[in-house]
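It would be a great kindness if you could assist me with a short task in structural biology. I am sending you one protein, given as its amino acid sequence and as whole-number tokens for its backbone shapes. I would ask you to consider whether the tokens describe a fold that such a sequence might reasonably adopt. The full record is reproduced below for your convenience.
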Amino acid sequence: MKITNMEQGSFKKLADYDNILITDEQGKIIFYDLADLNVLKVLGYRPEEFMGKHITSFYENLSDETSTIMHVLKSGKAVCNVKQELMTKRGNPFVTINSTYPIVENNKIIGAIEFSKHLFSTDQIQSLDKFASHKVYRKNNTIYTIDDIISINPAMEKIKKKIEKISKTSSTVLIYGRTGTGKEVIAQAIHNLSDRYEKPFISLNCGAVPPTLLESTLFGTTKGSFTGSEDMPGLFEQAEGGTLFLDEINSLDINLQVKLLKAIEEKNIRRIGGKKNISVNIRVISATNEDPEILLEERRLREDLFYRLGIVQIDLPNLTERKEDIEVLVKHFIDFYNSNMNIYIEGIQPEVLACFKWYDWPGNIRELKNAIETAYNHASSAFITLEDIPRRISKYNGRIKSALTDITGRTLKDAVEEYEKEIIVRELKNSNGVIAETGRRLGLSKQSLKYKMDKYGLR
């Protein structure tokens, strides 16, 4: 059996595709592997209903004459990089890029294999957040590797080197970073660099689960332990051999923190209502968006749990502390959306980049990505303009012009530093001189704020 008409270099081009589908000689599906099951949802089918269906049965405007697979089955010749604009039975537009090849055995066509990429529309753009750019790893529940840590910032380069070292061990890791700084990207990068990469990466946002359900979510339940309970493995068991990532660990109830500490130290758990201990082999990575020192001071994080979780601690800088990364991140996000959407943007106008560099980014990298997503929904030209980005960001253009109108006798660096000093003085006053609170307002760590206060002689 062979796939015919595979030209030299075709396999490299096929690496750009996300989905694989195989049919028999009649055009009925016998195998598929999709990067995003939302594709099936759009079609109106459950995964188990997809098998055995004829390829033309999913679309209003697809027939034996217009289907790339049916064409290949009849002609025996491959077709490459064909764009198809389809309409589902539900009336949803669906754009794909396909390369299709016949499968031949004993000089007879016995099927076809199609490699495809789904191009998203602006109303589907949020689905891209679940897309794995590294197809090999997506089977372990991850979508990021260390290559997704986009930076030219020295501090971030040190963090990447640190990740490469600690991925070789099974020590616990505590990641501290403000909202949107990329804590889960770091956690997945550690997992995919480790020897556990073929095992599952299980993620839980502790703040998103009601406190009454957290214990059963983590440790599982035994049938009969309470009304309606079933034998159900918790996340510790589901992560067996792999990594359990606990985000917003600071939201855990103190009593549950004790049980979590015991489970990590003893490497075994007991389901709710269970009578036996279950041994677990997992690596625990946790994260918090609040300074661990403050959590300890306010007794919202047990000291013994902190020491156990933070064998290795990674402190992620805010985007304001790595502004040289803004340009490379913008390019990365534009490349990402261009590759997956039915829209093409060449870049951003210079005044937009200047505005991005002056804005304080309270939502960090996530907010920057969302700003580019907003622009894709509004852009009417090949370049993103101030009119395309969120208003809360574009209004900084006026502040830039105002701040730079009176810099006679000063360098731009001096003017910017004076402006920064004024902001810090104002927020210190608003926070009654409390450094931790000022840091929260400015999106700075205590260390970064203290450095800037010393720099400007403010303490």
